[in-house]
Amino acid sequence: MLNEMTRIRAVVPVLLIGLLLIPVVVHAQVNRRLALDYLNRGTSEMDAGNLNAALAHFERAIELDPGYGASYFSRGLVRKRLLDLDGAISDFTRSIKLKPIAEAYLNRGATLKDQGDPDAAIADYNKAIEMKPDYADAFYNLGIARDHKGDLDGAIRDFTRAIELNPTHARALVGRGFSHMKKGDVDRALADYSKGIELNPLGFNGFYNRAFARKSKGDLEGAIADLNKAIEINREYVDAWHERALLRGARGDLDGSLADYGKVIELDPRHARAYANRGMVLLLRRQDAEAQKDFTTAIELDRSLKSTLEKSVEQIINTRPQRSLTRSP
Asked: Is 231:211 a contact under the CB 8 Å cutoff?
């Protein structure tokens, strides 16, 4: 009888501890379900482009369940898009500690590259590939980082592997084309750009980069056509307008060139070279007073242009046809 009572007394504390733990477990389960709900809401807002609303939902998910890695990963994606790079890296790192996934390494690597640390980025991309050997996007990002470091052969190799894993990877084709172009292999660059454009007709980089390849082959008309398409896709990209202005001027379309330089200056009022180049076109049109205003502005914005500008102005004035002093009968 005594032994039986001793056994009952020993069991009672265990049962009590178990009963005390039940509310804690239930509370944790409820919080995880609520966190998932906020995570889903945040994902919907992020997909819709409502980044601040998404950020608020992900932060609430983290408050409810600080041990759930997916919430940190998702907040990291938003912070990266909001250009809070330190915050994004912190979130991706926390996500990796809680539950390592290839996507977290990939995105942390991309953020590190944006911060100017390609070596750390490459380490993360390799870790992503180690976890997921068929990860085409990781090979693509690895190619970008290698290109940035000047390892063009390594970049081409990584882009090629990305294309092998995903033959429809338009960005990898454009990336490989860019590396080929930097190596001076214009024909291969053109082939890759064209295939990338075929796969993604709305991709800005394919058209923009192919314009330079066509220009290097002397195909100014084709280059202008590509810049037309690039500008149609992204009307805010200043360099596309500036390059088209240069090419239009080279082909003798001075009106079109002036219009494009005007757009460059509208988008970036401190674009010194746009003022300098527009001044040249105005000088060719004999609008000397307007040209001088642009030259003055260009030099005020960038004094390093002064010497080159003076030589170019002198050359244009000396070579342009002189006005006739007599009228034809």
From this structure: no
